[in-house]
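ok new one. same drill as before - structure tokens go in, u give me an amino acid for every spot. 447 of them this time. try not to just spam alanines like last time pls lmao
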């Protein structure tokens, strides 16, 4: 491939999430979140791993940020743990606020831009006990949470992300039961998705009302849905899968409506949609400043009349696969970006997560040779640059993840980091992919 240059303004970042790295699960006033409870249920998380210690970032954040700076990242995306800020109903925790204030100041010291995700799945247990995201009151709790963050950090944070991957926090969590709280009720899942989107709208409106001049948006996880064949049946199955993973979230945010075909499918399965109130969709579609997308792989879909819900099934792709058994398919990122610009928005698009898990091991002389991850990054960055060359508004790229961490239901069994973490000693060791990205960012080019 030829050498590709990125625009001078292109933002290079790396990303983490609070529950996955912080640890300090019961320190300085933090109370449990739904993942603490979920991880304790036998069989839900690999070997019952939990986030009690994780990467101990709560105590090691200064060294971690120094490492981010040494590698040359210009932005760091992290989330704020809701149960550190509001450990109980109506109770604000000064020590939780102080931790993030110190973290942000440390980033400023190195001229690293904080990109803050308000919600990355760690719903406080006290809110869950009132119904969690199925309860419309949680929208108000989220608005209160966002309001405190804006007041405390609004001037110091140039980039706010209201939610990370609403599909996971609703459908995967309340419908498929794979993530906390582990429910399998599709009425709950649809209500949760709606309330999450509504809380996004409330936060954006609040941010505007407070007069902040920085950027606020949302991050959606999007999957390129690829029909297994060109048959009409497979193409329609892929269309339904696209409605389920992509359009159900894109359409309300950018078009102020839910997709009609999916409304019909959900109603066929008994969904009442009574949780949608007048004015909700106008609020959900309040204009953002950017769109964040997380992309990892495609899904090949074959029609299956025996599937009771969407009438389709996934087919394993022919390409290389990661340790998550996800196919490496960078063309899907290019096609998604192109589609977003053609069908949905001309806003700047940030790739807020992109990366791969591999079975990394520490080698001789303290090195971790992760050539497959380097190739994954290279191919996907070429897809981004292709989109930019087409005139696309890709504004930045955050690799996932800064360091190996708690991979939700997979516990510590999957390593996504560009930094190897020895969980016994908490030693950090940059992998070869970290040095590869360091060179890419320094030169603003890829081969």
């Amino acid at each position: 491939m030829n050498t590709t240059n990125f625009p001078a303004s292109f933002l290079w970042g790396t990303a983490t999430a609070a529950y996955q790295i912080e640890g300090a699960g019961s320190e300085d006033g933090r109370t449990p979140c739904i993942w603490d409870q979920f991880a304790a249920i036998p069989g839900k998380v690999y070997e019952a791993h939990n986030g009690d210690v994780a990467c101990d970032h709560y105590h090691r954040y200064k060294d971690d940020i120094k490492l981010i700076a040494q590698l040359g990242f210009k932005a760091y995306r992290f989330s704020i743990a809701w149960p550190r800020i509001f450990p109980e109903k109506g109770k604000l925790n000064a020590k939780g606020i102080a931790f993030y204030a110190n973290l942000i100041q440390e980033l400023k010291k190195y001229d690293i831009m904080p990109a803050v995700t308000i919600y990355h799945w760690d719903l406080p247990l006290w809110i869950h006990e009132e119904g969690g995201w199925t309860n419309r009151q949680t929208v108000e709790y989220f608005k209160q949470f966002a309001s405190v963050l804006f007041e405390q950090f609004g001037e110091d944070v140039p980039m706010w992300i209201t939610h990370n991957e609403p599909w996971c926090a609703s459908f995967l969590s309340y419908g498929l039961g794979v993530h906390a709280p582990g429910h399998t009720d599709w009425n709950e899942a649809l209500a949760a998705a709606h309330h999450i989107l509504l809380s996004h709208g409330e936060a954006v409106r609040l941010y505007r009302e407070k007069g902040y001049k920085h950027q606020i948006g949302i991050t959606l996880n999007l999957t390129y849905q690829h029909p297994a064949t060109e048959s009409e049946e497979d193409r329609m199955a892929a269309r339904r899968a696209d409605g389920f993973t992509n359009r159900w979230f894109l359409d309300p945010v950018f078009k102020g409506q839910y997709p009609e075909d999916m409304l019909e499918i959900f109603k066929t399965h008994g969904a009442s949609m009574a949780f949608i109130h007048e004015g909700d969709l106008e609020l959900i579609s309040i204009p953002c400043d950017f769109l964040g997308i997380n992309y990892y792989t495609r899904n090949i879909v074959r029609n299956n009349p025996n599937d009771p819900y969407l009438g389709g099934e996934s087919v394993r792709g022919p390409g290389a696969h990661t340790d998550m058994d996800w196919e490496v398919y960078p063309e899907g990122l290019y096609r998604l970006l192109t589609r977003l610009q053609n069908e949905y928005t001309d806003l700047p698009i940030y790739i807020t997560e992109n990366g791969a898990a591999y079975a990394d091991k520490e080698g001789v002389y303290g090195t971790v040779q992760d050539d497959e991850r380097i190739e994954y990054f290279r191919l996907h960055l070429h897809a981004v640059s292709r989109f930019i060359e087409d005139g696309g508004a890709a504004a930045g790229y955050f690799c996932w993840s800064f360091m190996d961490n708690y991979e939700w239901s997979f516990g510590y069994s999957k390593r996504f980091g560009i930094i190897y973490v020895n969980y016994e000693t908490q030693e950090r060791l940059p992998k070869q992919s970290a040095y590869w990205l360091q060179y890419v960012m320094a030169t603003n080019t890829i081969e």
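The chain has 15 helices and 15 strands. and btw The radius of gyration is 21 Å.
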